[in-house]
Every structure is written in structure tokens, then in C-alpha cells.
Amino acid sequence: MVRELDHWIDGKSVPRGTQSAMTVTGPFDRRPIARVSLGGREHVDLAVEAARRAARAWGDRPPLERGRLLAEVARRLRERADEFVEVEVAETGKLVTEMRGGLQVAADYFEYYGGVVRALFGETINLGAGDHAFTSREPYGVVAMITPWNGPLTQAARGMAAALAAGNTVVIKPSEFTSSTTLMLARLCEEVGIPPGVVNVVVGEGPEVGGPLTEHPAVRLIAFTGSVVTGRRVAETAARRLVPAILELGGKSANVVFADADLDRVVEHALTICTGAGQQCAALSRLLVQNEIHDELLERVAQEMRARIPGDRLAPMTTEAQFDKVLEYFDVATQDGARLVAGGRAAAGALAAGRYVEATVYAEVTPQMRIFREEIFGPVLAVSRFATEEEGIELANDSEYGLVAGVWTADSARGLRVASRIDAGQVIVNGGRTGIETPFGGYKASGLGREKGFESLLHYTQLKTTVVSTR
Ligand code: TXE
């Protein structure tokens, strides 16, 4: 079935009319799956205007009321899980099991922010008798959100839930390749009673929709998830307009494994590079291994990676451009002299109809090689070796990025010591579990600001200080 996707503005679907549309082909067999309206400035203007009109009333509602509506979004998302999962899998190529988990996470965001917004308080500041000073957290008004194609539903839910809980209204531009579940989510918000104009979706391509959206004078905050190149462009616009921007960009995250680590757990965790076929910003794509255990760990990881058969336990690349990009990196790795240990090719046979690549491992990867430095966004592990703790930390930090890092050691003092020295927004020691409660975001080129956790709610509000004379 080819889905027809139109904008959702002010509680209504905006028919395409004579407007042009783009055909999206699916990751499993490259057959057409959707026709997406190619929006432009006029749709952005309509959507932002609707969001601006809705902002005052929505921001004035008691947090309790907004929270209850968001909790209802969570409940209905779970109720309609199969439908959302099916559509998201068709567009992204994710494994059904992965997306079932993703659906729960999306619902959790609405539940969490719908509840925690009731604990969003200001402070009173003691200036002595005669003056009463207090702070309050106010919404910005219209928030622009731009999301990518690797986790369309969870990424939309993550920003929307926090922004809406805090009393903002939103205009979202999803990736042109994966717009369906964002549109479904916007309709669902309407169904539970969130007023028209509070959530708007404009579909289409980056420069034509994302550009005018970030430029729009009524947009007071921009939340962007995507590449560093586009993130920089968005940040430049935000700087010129003097509006804040939350940027969640890419990563080349290091997983640092010391000789005393529990290798069974390391192997299992290292395989998370295959989640979403490695198309995740948080992927631990550099495996840095202490010399003593290097050969053993490399062999064990490579063996498991070879067992990740594409189509069965490994998803395809979502877009054709991403498929081409990964294949290009296979050539780059060979030219740079990395040693191929597993994979390194597109999947052959019947799977060649889809955008499948093999789970891939390169060894003897050095900091001079491009696969050490550049985000591939595929199921590709770059393995390097180190001798001392100091060297491990240095290698981990030898990156333009700083989103996530892993540390594995039986020595908990060393775990904490190394975690404190690594330049990353989130460090996971011995496979510690993260949740929607744990703030997430980058150091260095991996971004600005934080998503998730209570911290995110603060980002979606601005602080006002009020001082009253009681003299
Ligand atoms: O990203 P873009 P692409 C990385 C990953 C991937 C690479 C390229 O390495 O291989 O980026 O992906 C919109 N103004 N990540 O090219 O272009 C676009 O329509 C405003 C990491 O797909 O950044 C989409 O909605 N918006 C990442 C969104 O930006 C513009 C997730 C992201 O697309 C725009 C995705 C413009 N001028 C890719 N141009 C992560 N952090 O998880 C495009 N867009």
C-alpha cells in the first residue's frame, strides 16, 4: 500500500491539491511505500500561525490538565501499538522486536513528562523584608522540531512530550523519508482532546520546510536532531535570530574495554551496534580494547557479528543514501588499511533487493583512518587496541564527537575515574542501563542542550524572575 501523506495543520489534514509530491521507497525491497507532499514556506507559515494562536490558552492550562492529556496519549499509543509498529517498520526497516520496544519508549515519554511537569517549580529568593522575589518557568510559545529518519516516532515523542508538558505548542518537520508515524501521533493528540494548533506537522524536504521553519519569526525555540552539517546550519540561523537551539547530532562513541572486564557482558553489549542496523546516534561504534584481551575479544565479537544474518537479525538501511554511504565506507576502510574481520559487503542473493549490508568488523583501526573519526551510521565496528589506562582515555577522546562512551572494568574505582575523564555527555560503565529519566546529549560536535530526563523540561521553559515590593 502506498500511503498518501499530507500536512497536519490546526487540527486538519491539508490536501495536496496541485502541490508536488515525492515518492518514498521502502528499505526491504525498494518498492514505493509513500507519497509525501512537498511542503514549502506557505505551509510553514500556516502551521506556525496556528501554533502561535494556540499557544496562550495551552500554556495557561494547569500542568495537571496538560499532564492528563499526555498520559492519555501514552495510553492510546500502547493500545494502538501494532498499527504504529507496522507503519514505522515499513518506513525505517527496523526489526519488529526493536520497534515494539521503541513504541513503549515513545509512550513512556508522554507518561513521564505528563507526570513530572507537576513538579516543575520556581524558587523564592530572600532579599530581606520589603521585597518578594520569585522565579517561574514559562513556556517559550512556538517550538520548531526537526527530526531525522532513524527513530521517527521516539524522536518526535521525546521532544513533543517535554515541549507540550511545559506548555509550548509545536510545529514538527519529520524526515521526508519517514513522516507517517509523526502524522499519526499528531492525529492521536487531537483525538485525546489536545486542542487544534497545539501540534502541527509540515512534511517535505529539509531546505524547503526545515529552512523556513527555523527562520520563522514566531518560532521561539528550535529542537533539531540530525547530522552535524545540518545542525550547524540550524545553529547559525538560531544564532542570527537569537533563539535557543537544542541540537542532538551524531556520534563516534568509544567503548573502552580493560583486560579485567567481564567479556561475556562486553560481547553482548558490543552487539548493540546492530540495533537499528547501527543507525543510531548513540551507537558505540569504536571498540577500544586493552592489548591483553584484544585478540580474544575481537574473535568473539566477530563471531557474533557474522551470526547477525541480515533480514533475520539485522535490519536494512533506511534510505538509499544511507545504504550508499555505508558501502562507500567499506571502500574507505580498505583504502586506509583497516583489517576486515567480518562482513564488509552488501547482502547478496534475494536480500539484494533491499538495502541490507552485513554486520561488519574492522580491526587495527588507527586514529588517522576515516572509519575511526567519521560517523558511518551502519552496523560497523571499528576495533583499536591500547596499552595503558591513559592511552585508552586518550583514544576515546580523540574525536570531534562526544555523545556517549562505554567503560568496562572489574575495578569500580577505575570505572569512575575513566568515566570522569571521558569527554561525552553520557558514560555507561559496565553496561549500566539508561532510561527516559537519564539526560542525553552531546559534548563537542555531538550537540547542544539535553533531551530526556527532567533536564529536558527545563530546556523547554524560560526562567522569569519577578520582584514585588511589599514596602
Ligand atoms: O541528515 P540531515 P541526513 C547522521 C548520520 C547520517 C547523516 C546524514 O551519520 O548518515 O547524518 O543523514 C532536515 N534546514 N545522522 O542527511 O540532513 C531533514 O529533512 C532544516 C545522525 O538524513 O541532518 C531531516 O528532517 N532542516 C542523526 C533532518 O534535517 C533540514 C540522525 C535530518 O536530516 C535541512 C540522522 C535544512 N537546510 C542522521 N536539511 C542523529 N543525531 O541521530 C535537512 N534538514
Task: Describe the protein's architecture and organization.
- This protein is an alpha/beta fold.
- The protein has 2 domains: 3-249 and 446-467, Aldehyde Dehydrogenase, Chain A, domain 1; 254-435, Aldehyde Dehydrogenase, Chain A, domain 2.
- Helices cover 41% and strands 22% of the residues.
- It has 15 helices and 23 strands.
- It has helices spanning 41-60, 63-79, 81-92, 96-116, 152-165, 180-192, 206-215, 228-241, 263-270, 291-307, 320-336, 370-373, 389-397, 412-421, 453-459, and strands spanning 3-5, 7-9, 12-14, 21-25, 32-37, 124-125, 131-139, 142-146, 169-173, 199-201, 219-225, 245-248, 254-257, 286-290, 339-342, 360-363, 380-386, 401-402, 404-408, 426-429, 443-444, 447-448, 461-469.
- The strands form 6 sheets. The protein has a 7-stranded mixed β-sheet, sandwiched between helices.
- It is globular and about 70 Å long.
- It binds ligand TXE.
- Ligand TXE binds next to helix 7, helix 8 and helix 11.
- The site of ligand TXE has 27 residues, from helix 7, helix 8 and helix 11.
